[in-house]
Every structure is written in structure tokens, then in C-alpha cells.
Q: What sequence folds into this?
């Protein structure tokens, strides 16, 4: 039972962290251009950056 | 227009719509091409919306940006500000989906321990934890369904969301009661999983609509056309079409479309009115002639006095016809709605019957209620809710890769049933733009071709642009020219290696012989390059394919005379010429009366009413705004194969949808008796539900394979 008292909060916290991360991504516009994000990885960078 | 002043030290953001972007290399080219321009700070592409937002110096104007994109081969338009990007249908569903997913996984974790034998205080603790996570999550994620069910009930109707809401609320209530009374089974996991799968279906459905709309909107959102207004003191000002007033004088350059009806004041020119009437031969106009909005000026810049603008133009009449024509189509009921009309009452009856049955058989209220709820949950249309949207999303993406954009799922259902196709001639069967004679181009010596390309690339005249396109395709490189000058109404002149060269309109007798231009190089004889509107590539294969799909095709053309006969002979199709917009609409009404289902393919304003009246309609990407707005499908590129491909894709989709229904209903037929007789535990319900949903998704994904319905990809 002591194991549970420790593990359950950990599991819940990790789940919540994932949920929070998703909401952050949603708010910061990461889902605005899904097609573009998929294609952007293929663009070759040139010169700067 | 779409510019917003940013900070005081002068930075401007301009959003341009670039319909031609569709891959990573296009994105790279557009972004690099724009950033290379002096005065541009940054450019960022949004591929889903086919837009690029540019932050730049205000000294740089929209036309400069458009010209820069044009040079690297991407036609673009500033985005009209009044047409802000439409609200996404997916976004409000993502948060509920995420919450349902999070809660479902955590509750499932706890439930598995209960199922594998946790008892006593541990089980109670787990049930309480599940309730703590589950109830808020169910309330949050279920709002989508509760709201829709409530609005249906308020209007005395029922929809798929009513049994879902009742099942979810009852199951949550019962589970909470079980938790309070230290019961053995709680249903939080099953309820959450139900919500998760249903939300996934909704998200896919919304994604389908969004994606289709983003693509089509990129075309529709192109800024309203405008005109350069000449004021009395000679200053020039660009005004949008809707700000034009009768009495204003507008200057229309060669290659520009008229934004309003008007009267030609000065000069003499030829105009292409194929968008209005379908007639392909240019008409000449001289001072005093009446011109209509939508005509394309071919030759010389002219001044036109506006006689009617906005709602008074010829377009308004066509818009009225279209409004009336759309009614036939709105009577169509989508297959998912038809299914839910049958399904919702059946589910309620079944659940009520099992409750009554168990009561009569002597079980307690509690026991009977548990059975009734498990029936409600197990019949809840998880797989059924996914059956249509998943198939349509997958098919629409596959079609989009093939260059056909689908406006909504209903269009796929309607086009699958057509048996007659009516094709417009100009712009639909043909390319709708002049193409240079290939034989002449092949006969040009290499240096002459290089000179022609260099000269043409300096002009915006439609013939020059067609010439540039054709020569570029042939791999010709432009020659170095000096002293390039454009003489309005005449052509281009320049110096090449000390020789005078020109690309000009022919003089004398040749001038009257349709669309021809002359290439002069000082010492050599002149070349005549003839232009004509050509049939789209692959038209023969497309017509064969349509025939194989047992669709009979006919030509309905607004054009008269020889050009219709030529096209009819080349295609071997029955053709009717000289059709007015009303005439096309009536032709469709007659086919409807004879029991046919009609696919209309057209591009012009004159096709608008017919596009709206037909059971399904398709327009090329080069069509008029009206044409694209009225059509269900828009195809990119020149090939006519898009037409049969859309029909074949839609038919394949409907086959998969029917299979999905069979799978989902088959699952219910197996699971419902078990539920009615009380053999279903939460574990069985959870497994059965997810399996049937996954099978339906897997079946739909087959549509993405290089499929048999897509001959070209399969071959």
C-alpha cells in the first residue's frame, strides 16, 4: 500500500504534465499549420541559421 | 488591403494567398524568394491555408511582393481583409479530446487493477480516484454532445447525440452510486473511452471540413478584384471593385479583367469574354461600346467609364439564378444523418425494452437499470460515428494528393451517385487560355526561342505569359537583352547582340486572323506564332474512364459555331452550343425529371447556376470566383483526369462507408444480445468497443493506398 501512495500521485502528475504540455502547445499555435510542419522538415536550410 | 501598420518605426505585415504551394520545396522557394527581396524582414508560409505572411518595409508595396513571387513561378494575390480566415472547426474539439484521452488512460490504469482482483479498501480507493478524475473529465469532454443533444431535444428532434448523452450521464450517475455504496463495478473507464472515440470521429470530420475549406478558401479568399481609377486631375488610385461608383473612369491594362460594367471611352482593343458567355473568340471594342465586368482586356490599355458596379452588374443576375438553383441540392440528406435517424430510436427502444423485460422477469430496479445502461453503452455508435468521417477524410486526402479538392463530405456522397456528366467547353474541356502552336515553337532556332522567351518575360500580356510558359516547359533559357521597352498595343522591343528584336502584334491582314504574334530578329524573316485555346491534356483518357464508370457525358457550351463542332468531333461527345446560363440550368432540370443524377463541370460565370443546380459539380482551379464557389470540387492542374478520378474516388469511399456500417452494425448484433442477457462486464464492453472502432479505422485507411480506383497511380 505504501508503494501505491507513492506511485499513484506520480502517475497522475505525469499525466497532468502531459495534458498541460498539450494545452500549452495548442495555445502557442503549434497546431495552426499541420501540413506545413510536416513539410518543413524537408526544407534545406541555406546560409544563415 | 491586407496590410496592418505595426510599430511606429515602420514594419508592415502583408498576407498573400499563394494557391500554387503544395510541398516543402514550394515553401522553401517562396520563403527564400521573398526574403531575398530588399526590404523584406521575414516571410513565413502557412501551408494548410496556402498563405505567406511577409514582414517588410512599408516602402515595399504589395505589387512588388506579388511580382517577386510571380518571378519564381508562384502566382499570388493579397488576401482581402474582410475575408478573415474562417474559424477552425477542429480547434474547439482538440481540448476535449485531450482531456478525454488523459482521463481515459488514467482511469483505465486504475480499472485494470480492479479487474485483476483488487478488492476491499483498495478497490474503493481506486473507484474514488476514478470518480475524481472521471466526473470532471466527462463533464468537460461531453459538453460537445450534451449541447448538441439539448438543442435537438429543444426543437423536438432527436439525433445521434441524444442516446450518447443519455448513456453517458446515466452511466456516470450509476458509477458514482456504485462508488458510494462500495459496489463491485464502476463504468468510468467505458464512458471515457466512449467519449474518446466519439470525439476522435468528430475531430476527423471537422478536419475534413477544415482541410477542404483551407484549400478552397485559398482560392476564394483571393482579394476582390479592383481597378485603377483615373481622377479628373490625372492622378491614379487603386480601388476595390465594391468601392467603384458609376461615373468613375478606370484604366484597364492589357491582361487585366474589368471590375465593373462600363463604356469604352478611348482607344480600341479586343476583349476575351469567355468567362461571361463561354465564347472563345475575342471580340473587338471601340470607343462607345458597352463592356461587362469579368471581361479580359487583351490588347491595349484603355479607359472605361463605369456604368454599373457591385450588385448592379451582370453578375448580380447570375447570382440570383444560382440562389434559386441551390434548393434542389439542399434536399439531400447525408448518409450519416439517415443512419442516425434510424439508429437513435432503435437504441432507445432496445434499452427501454431490456429495462422493462428484466423488471418483468423479477429483477430489482437496480439490476434492470444496470442492464439497460450496459445496452445503451454497448450500442452507442462508436464505430458508427467513425464509419463515415474516417473514410471521407482518408479519401479526401488521397484525392487532394491527386489534385482534387473536396469542399465537404456530402459532396463525395452526391458525386458517387451521378450517371450523367455535363461539360462546359471553354475553360473546362479546353484550357481556357491561349496556347502557342507547338509545331511553330519546335521549328524555332534555339537562339530565336531564347530571344522570344526573354522578350515575352518582360510583358504581362496574356499571350506573352503563355509563350513564357510554353518555352520554359521546353527548357529554353532566356537570352540577354538590353534596352527592353514595351510599346502599349504594339509589343516588346529590345536590343540583342546589337540587333533590333521585337515581339509584336502583326500588322495588316494577319492582324484580323485570330490570336497571332510576330517575332522579329533584325536580319531574318519574321516568325508568326499562332495561339489557340487547346483541349486539356488527357481529355480522351478522361472520357474513356468516365464511360467505364458508366457515366454518359455531353458538352453544354455557351459558345457557338465552329469551335464547338471542333471540340465535339475531337471528343466524340454529343454537344449543345449557344446555351445561356438559364438554358444550362433547364437542361439539368430536364435530366433530373428523367431520373438522372447530374455532374456539372464548368468554370465560367455562365456556368454558375448550372453548377449550383446539378447534383454535384466540379470546377477547374482556373475558374471564375463564382465557378469555384458554386462547385463541390475544385481540381488543380491542367489534366481532365481529375473528373473521373473524383467520381471513382467517391464511389470507392461509399463502398468503404457501407462496409464500415456493416462492420459496426455486425458488432452490435453480436454484442447487444450479450448485453441484454446481462453477460457484459465493463472489461468486455471496453474491449469490444475499441476493437470495432479500430477495425473501422483500419478498413477506411485502405482508401489511402495507391488504390485500384485511381488508375493513374496504380498504373
A:
Amino acid at each position: 500500500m505504501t508503494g501505491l501512495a507513492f506511485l499513484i500521485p506520480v502517475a497522475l502528475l505525469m499525466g497532468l504534465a502531459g495534458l498541460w504540455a498539450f494545452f500549452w502547445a495548442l495555445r502557442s499555435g503549434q497546431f495552426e499549420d499541420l501540413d506545413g510542419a510536416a513539410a518543413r522538415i524537408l526544407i534545406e536550410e541555406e546560409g544563415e541559421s | 488591403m491586407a496590410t496592418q501598420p505595426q510599430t511606429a518605426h515602420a514594419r508592415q505585415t502583408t498576407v498573400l494567398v499563394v494557391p500554387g504551394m503544395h510541398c516543402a520545396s514550394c515553401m522553401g522557394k517562396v520563403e527564400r524568394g521573398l526574403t531575398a527581396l530588399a526590404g523584406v524582414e521575414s516571410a513565413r508560409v502557412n501551408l494548410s491555408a496556402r498563405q505567406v505572411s511577409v514582414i517588410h518595409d512599408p516602402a515595399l508595396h504589395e505589387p512588388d511582393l506579388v511580382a517577386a513571387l510571380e518571378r519564381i513561378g508562384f502566382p499570388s494575390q493579397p488576401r482581402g481583409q474582410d475575408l478573415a480566415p474562417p474559424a477552425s472547426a477542429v480547434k474547439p474539439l482538440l481540448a476535449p479530446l485531450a482531456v478525454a484521452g488523459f482521463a481515459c488512460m488514467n482511469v483505465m490504469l486504475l480499472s485494470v487493477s480492479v479487474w485483476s482482483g483488487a478488492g476491499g479498501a483498495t478497490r474503493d480507493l481506486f473507484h474514488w480516484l476514478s470518480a475524481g478524475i472521471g466526473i470532471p473529465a466527462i463533464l468537460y469532454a461531453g459538453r460537445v454532445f450534451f449541447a448538441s443533444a439539448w438543442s435537438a431535444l429543444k426543437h423536438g428532434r432527436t439525433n445521434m447525440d441524444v442516446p450518447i448523452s443519455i448513456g453517458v450521464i446515466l452511466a456516470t450517475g450509476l458509477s458514482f452510486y456504485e462508488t458510494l455504496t462500495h459496489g463491485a463495478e464502476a463504468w468510468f473507464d467505458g464512458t471515457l473511452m466512449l467519449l474518446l472515440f466519439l470525439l476522435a470521429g468528430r475531430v476527423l470530420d471537422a478536419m475534413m471540413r477544415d482541410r477542404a475549406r483551407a484549400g478552397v478558401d485559398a482560392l476564394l479568399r483571393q482579394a476582390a478584384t479592383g481597378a485603377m481609377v483615373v481622377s479628373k486631375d490625372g492622378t491614379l488610385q487603386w480601388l476595390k471593385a465594391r468601392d467603384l461608383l458609376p461615373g468613375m473612369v478606370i484604366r484597364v491594362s492589357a491582361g487585366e479583367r474589368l471590375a465593373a460594367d462600363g463604356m469604352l471611352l478611348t482607344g480600341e482593343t479586343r476583349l476575351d469574354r469567355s468567362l461571361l458567355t463561354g465564347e472563345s473568340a475575342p471580340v473587338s471594342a471601340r470607343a462607345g461600346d458597352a463592356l461587362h465586368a469579368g471581361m479580359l482586356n487583351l490588347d491595349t490599355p484603355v479607359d472605361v467609364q463605369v456604368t454599373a458596379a457591385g450588385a448592379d452588374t451582370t453578375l448580380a443576375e447570375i447570382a440570383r439564378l444560382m440562389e434559386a438553383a441551390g434548393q434542389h441540392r439542399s434536399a439531400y440528406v447525408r448518409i450519416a444523418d439517415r443512419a442516425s435517424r434510424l439508429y437513435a430510436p432503435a437504441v432507445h427502444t432496445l434499452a427501454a425494452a431490456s429495462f422493462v423485460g428484466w423488471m418483468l422477469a423479477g429483477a430489482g430496479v437496480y439490476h434492470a437499470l444496470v442492464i439497460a445502461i450496459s445496452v445503451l453503452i454497448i450500442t452507442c455508435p462508436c464505430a458508427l460515428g467513425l464509419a463515415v468521417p474516417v473514410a471521407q477524410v482518408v479519401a479526401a486526402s488521397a484525392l487532394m494528393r491527386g489534385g482534387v479538392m473536396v469542399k465537404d463530405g456530402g459532396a463525395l456522397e452526391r458525386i458517387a451517385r451521378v450517371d450523367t456528366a455535363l461539360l462546359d467547353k471553354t475553360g473546362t474541356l479546353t484550357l481556357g487560355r491561349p496556347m502557342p502552336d507547338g509545331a511553330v515553337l519546335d521549328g524555332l532556332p534555339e537562339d530565336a526561342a531564347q530571344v522570344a522567351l526573354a522578350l515575352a518575360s518582360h510583358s504581362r500580356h496574356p499571350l506573352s505569359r503563355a509563350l513564357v510558359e510554353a518555352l520554359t516547359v521546353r527548357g529554353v533559357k532566356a537570352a540577354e537583352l538590353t534596352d527592353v521597352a514595351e510599346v502599349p498595343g504594339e509589343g516588346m522591343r529590345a536590343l540583342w547582340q546589337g540587333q533590333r528584336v521585337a515581339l509584336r502584334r502583326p500588322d495588316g491582314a494577319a492582324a484580323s486572323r485570330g490570336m497571332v504574334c510576330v517575332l522579329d530578329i533584325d536580319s531574318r524573316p519574321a516568325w508568326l506564332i499562332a495561339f489557340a485555346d487547346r483541349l486539356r491534356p488527357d481529355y480522351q483518357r478522361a472520357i474513356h474512364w468516365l464511360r467505364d464508370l458508366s457515366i454518359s457525358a455531353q458538352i453544354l457550351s455557351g459558345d457557338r459555331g465552329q469551335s464547338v463542332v471542333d471540340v465535339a468531333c475531337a471528343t466524340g461527345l454529343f454537344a449543345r452550343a449557344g446555351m445561356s446560363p438559364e438554358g444550362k440550368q433547364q437542361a439539368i432540370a430536364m435530366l433530373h425529371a428523367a431520373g438522372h443524377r447530374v455532374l456539372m463541370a464548368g468554370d465560367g460565370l455562365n456556368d454558375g447556376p448550372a453548377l449550383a443546380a446539378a447534383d454535384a459539380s466540379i470546377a477547374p482551379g482556373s475558374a471564375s470566383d463564382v465557378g469555384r464557389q458554386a462547385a463541390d470540387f475544385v481540381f488543380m492542374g491542367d489534366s481532365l483526369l481529375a473528373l473521373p478520378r473524383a467520381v471513382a474516388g467517391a464511389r470507392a469511399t461509399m463502398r468503404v462507408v457501407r462496409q464500415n456500417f456493416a462492420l459496426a452494425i455486425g458488432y452490435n448484433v453480436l454484442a447487444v444480445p450479450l448485453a441484454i442477457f446481462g453477460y457484459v462486464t465493463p472489461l468486455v464492453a471496453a474491449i469490444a468497443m475499441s476493437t470495432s472502432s479500430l477495425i473501422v479505422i483500419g478498413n477506411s485507411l485502405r482508401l489511402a493506398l495507391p488504390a485500384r480506383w485511381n488508375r493513374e497511380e496504380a498504373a
About this structure: The mean pLDDT of chain A is 79. Helices of chain A lie at 2-27, 34-40. The CA atoms of residues 2 and 27 of chain A lie 38 Å apart. The interface with chain B takes residues 1, 4, 8, 11-12, 15-16, 18-19, 22-23, 26, 31-36, 39-44, 46 of chain A (CB under 8 Å).
